[in-house]
Amino acid sequence: MEKIKNIKKINEILTNDGVISYVTDTVWGLGCLPSSEKAVKRIYEIKHREAAKPLILMSDEVYNLFDYLKPIPKEGQKLIKKYFPGALTIVLDKSSKTPNYITSNLPTVGIRVPDNEVFAEICRGIEGRVLATTSANISGEPPALTYEEAVKYIGDKVDFVIPDYGFQARGRASTVVGFNGETPVIYRQGDIEI
Predict the structure, then answer these.
(1) Is the domain defined by 7-188 classed in CATH 3.90.870.10?
(2) pTM for this model (two decimals)
(3) Hey, where are the domains in the chain?
(4) Residue 187 · residue 173 · CB < 8 Å
């Protein structure tokens, strides 16, 4: 894949409390650096999102997310091996590194590694390689599935909508799974059947 142009610009935006939009394997995303409370607040404002709904953390590689988590249960490790990268969000106990403003004060955080080359390339080029993220849309409206839709829905509210370079979103949300002890619990049935 051609290198994403503007990685320097993307970095500058993010380190200055900026918000970007990008393609993933499922739907278009909105994101910022997890360390920027100001940018996280902006995401909630952009989406008109309820404060009780947490963001998730995404990266190009699962090991970039480990610092944000407590030790992962065996069943969680199995799901990571089987489905990452892919359309699965796993809700796990968070470590003290994960700020409450991302998780709506919950003790858990959702993590995901999308299977999309443009998203991976963005992560490889940014500080910490992790984004606090959610879907690119106004709450209650359908998520953006194309670059054009992302621009239309939230383009005037974010600092940069990154082109998809032909790596399009497939259009179905990720499956969200959590744990009751070691037992997986499906919170949302999406693209992946467990």
Answers:
(1) yes
(2) 0.96
(3) 7-188
(4) no
